[in-house]
Amino acid sequence: MRSPGDFTDVAVVAFAQSDHQRTTDELSEVEMLMPVLHDVQRQTGLKAGDIGFTCSGSSDYLAGRAFSFTMALDGVGAWPPISESHVEMDGAWALYEAWVKILTGEVDTALVYAYGKSSPGSVRDVLTRQLDPYYVAPLWPDAVALAALQAQALIDAGDTDERALARVATRSRTAAESNPHAQLPGARPQGDYLVRPLRKGDCPPVGDGAAAVILAAGDRARELRERPAWIRGMDHRIEAHSLGVRDLTDSPSTRLAAERAGAFERPVDTAELHAPFTSQEVVLRKALRLDSDSTVDVNPSGGALAANPVMATGLIRIGEAAARIHRGTSERALAHATSGPCLQQNLVAVLEGDQR
Amino acid sequence: MPEVLKAPLVVEFPFTRSLGPVQSAFLTGLRERTLLGVKTTDGRVLVPPVEYDPVTADEIRDLVEVGATGTVTTWAWNPEPRRGQPLATPFAWVLVRLDGADTALLHALDAPSPDAVRTGLRVRVRWAPERTGAITDIACFEPYEGPDSGEARDHSGDFANAVTGIIAPARLDYTYSPGRAQSAYLHALSENKTIGERCPSCRKVYVPPRGACPTCGVATDERVEVGPRGTVTTYCVVNIKAKNLDIEVPYVYAHIALDGADLALHGRIGGIPYDQVRMGLRVEPVWTEGGRYPDHYRPTGEPDADYDVYKELL
Lengths: 356, 314
What we know:
The structure holds two protein chains of two kinds.
Chain A: E1 10-17, H1 29-44, E2 53-57, H2 60-63, H3 68-72, E3 84-87, H4 91-103, E4 109-117, H5 123-126, H6 143-156, H7 162-175, E5 193-195, E6 198-199, E7 208-217, H8 218-224, E8 229-238, H9 252-261, E9 270-272, H10 278-288, E10 297-298, H11 313-327, E11 332-339, E12 345-352
Parallel strand pairs in A: 2-3, 2-4, 9-10, 9-11
Antiparallel strand pairs in A: 1-7, 1-8, 4-7, 5-6, 8-12, 11-12
Helix pairs in contact in A: 4-11, 6-10, 7-10
Chain B: E1 7-18, H1 21-31, E2 35-39, E3 45-46, E4 63-66, E5 69-78, E6 91-98, E7 105-109, E8 122-127, E9 138-143, E10 153-154, E11 165-176, H2 179-190, E12 194-198, E13 205-206, E14 222-226, E15 230-238, E16 251-258, E17 265-269, E18 282-286, E19 296-299, H3 307-310
Antiparallel strand pairs in B: 1-11, 2-3, 2-4, 4-10, 5-6, 5-8, 6-7, 8-9, 12-13, 12-14, 15-16, 15-18, 16-17, 18-19
């Protein structure tokens, strides 16, 4: 048992993700998920029974399958009963819960996974069901429409323009050429407007995928990974749900979460940002003080514009940042995850490798 | 590998939602062509109004009436309207700050083209001809050249026959595909066979197979035909007639462990009076012409199975 309140020694020790694809008709959720679970188990040598806590993030609405998250547990090996929890949110929030569980001292390892199968439904419409059911959801404003309102507000404020947004798309997908899991590697034309001012290229691909992470505390982490990615701080904050109350050109919740995670105490070298739309990267850079001449490597994985398995995309940001630390290509990285329309809720984690 | 199965799946539900006092006044107001806002603790006017202050979380109840005219604060041109959206022809999504309000309302703007829309455009409400007390009582906004209707005025929020709830229909369309293991199971059923899958680690055979062993957490890859005969491990007597089900009550619904399976499945027991069904009864499936699964299971006439044979499958 560890003493509660020891905030410094929990690390990401393993990360795996699927190849993200437009459709995976031949696979059920658990069939899609199992290879990534086995991958993180293989990386650490841990079996289901060795892991103290398991937490997952997913949404049954994506594929229209009630209780799909209980079926997904079959892939974990949940019998005899394991200590387990689920969030109807991106897996980054499942990771937050697992981190807190380790900080209590109750366990010293945790498995976190997330999956999203958007292909069976229409994710633009599915996401309308998370909106205010009284004043907004009855109008069925789809996810691209809401992001486009935010993009236009940014253009009106002089924060960006269509050419700058296109550069975000090109930079992200070019970076994804070195990401073997990406759905859209390589720059491509911006295409027509989906909802003006957002063009097809400003929007994330629709697809299916899964990811898993293993967390461990202190010496356990050092046993499991030569260079653990220590979580130095993590926080998440939410804004008012009514879009008309918010300043859509800014993200005070991201800024506050970053402050509380310690992101501004020392510079980071890498930032994995969960920005499904090009315009949202503009907002996040402003909130996180990552202006365009910053030397920080932003979304070297290609980010959500290259692969967006909804409910796993945020967890993948943390995993990608951690994997760079594992490989020794990053010393200190910021990972961000978002949830809700127009960056409504934001999570920031700061990860570091041991000094070399 | 057999063809992966696919089928349309519609998830549809009318959500019945009750309203708080502020929401009730706002939506009833829409029915009466009156637009209400609520004052926050610091005196700002929120439209649409909410029950609690978004900054302080205080309960807020001071209602005001605002204008049916306003100003676009941001917009987005929607060239291909989707099902359920306010207009069927291309339109602009807009956030509109109504005259007298400090915050903006999301809705649609009917405009001929994106060239006719800009931030700062003056607009007014176009009311729906039939109004019920819902956000859709505003049909949409339309461009309007006219004066600002000025400051918000106090309003009691009292109306005759206030709406206290809304029914919000929701429908999502999917194409369901059951995945590898369940596709194989369904294909086999169409040939009047039941298959399971064996766990390579613990050797258990799961029926129906879902692709993974929940004990070992590994893929079940070896396909095994089970049954057709099996044993009733436990059962219940159903006395309530289900809607849309043409079966006389009482009848027996049972867990049946098919021979070779390590997991019991469910089925109805027929061909025997309900009060003679017992644990250990040996049964076999009865298929009907064109049926996609056994209609029911009936006794085989074999001696009952010994309890020790199926006790692990209860």
